[in-house]
Write a structure and sequence with these properties.
Shape: elongated
Number of strands: 14
Mean pLDDT: 89
Strand order of the largest sheet: 4-1-7-12-9-10
Distance between the termini: 19 Å
Order of helices and strands: EHEEEEEEEEEEEEE
Strand content: 35-45%
Helix content: under 10%
Structural class: mainly beta
Number of helices: 1
Largest sheet: 6 strands, antiparallel
Radius of gyration: 18 Å
Length: about 220
């Protein structure tokens, strides 16, 4: 058998992609937090994200996170660089700063989650990216089920595929995306965004619904 520069993996029994290339998540301070949340006054208030108590990162924080995300939208450009182990990747950020890393292998746990969760000692914006190469023998449609606790943008072979601006607290929000896969390989790349006020659940899971694919 010829030697190749790739490894081949299968989906799990639920169709989850378990093997990814990822970059370590980037984080930077929320320097404009006071523009979206009063810095003084009572910490108590209605559960609409306007009271300072939402900084405890409770379930009612989604409104504040949505306002922050609207001011720091993910750009529409895909990450640049070849998707291969150890290859450099450049990810455009919502603050007009491109961030560099190298792709690393990542095999998820049984929950299928790529997990960048962390404890933030100060309010922080966060950016993560994951990629997988999907292979089918014949051109055929599939449905990708993308699950995340925060906004994301997905690209197929560098072209915009789908996106979500939704926030959830613990259980991820899922979006189903029909996608026509051509024969041979297609590269799926997902850029994720989060903001953490204390502990932050920053996760991604993708399932392929339909006939199996190789990864």
């Amino acid at each position: 058998m010829p030697v190749t520069d790739r490894t081949v993996h299968t989906l799990d029994a639920r169709g989850t992609i378990r093997d990814w290339l990822v970059a370590p998540a980037w984080g930077w301070p929320c320097e404009d937090l006071a523009d979206h949340l009063p810095a003084d006054g009572s910490p108590w208030g209605p559960p609409d994200g306007s009271a300072r108590w939402v900084l405890t990162n409770g379930p009612d924080v989604a409104g504040l996170k949505a306002r922050l995300h609207a001011a720091h939208l993910l750009p529409g450009e895909p990450p640049a660089g070849a998707v291969a182990v150890g290859a450099p990747v450049t990810v455009p950020g919502p603050d007009a700063v491109a961030r560099d890393a190298v792709w690393l292998r990542h095999h998820t746990g049984e929950d299928g989650l790529v997990d960048w969760s962390v404890f933030c000692f100060t309010p922080s914006y966060r950016l993560g990216v994951a990629a997988a190469v999907l292979e089918v023998d014949q051109a055929d449609p599939r449905v990708l089920e993308v699950a995340s606790t925060g906004p994301w943008r997905a690209y197929l072979d560098g072209r915009p595929l789908a996106s979500s601006d939704s926030f959830t607290y613990m259980e991820p929000h899922t979006t189903r995306v029909p996608v026509p896969l051509p024969s041979r390989t297609s590269t799926l790349t997902v850029v994720t965004w989060q903001v953490g006020f204390r502990e932050v659940r920053h996760i991604l899971r993708v399932r392929v619904l339909g006939l199996p694919v190789r990864v």
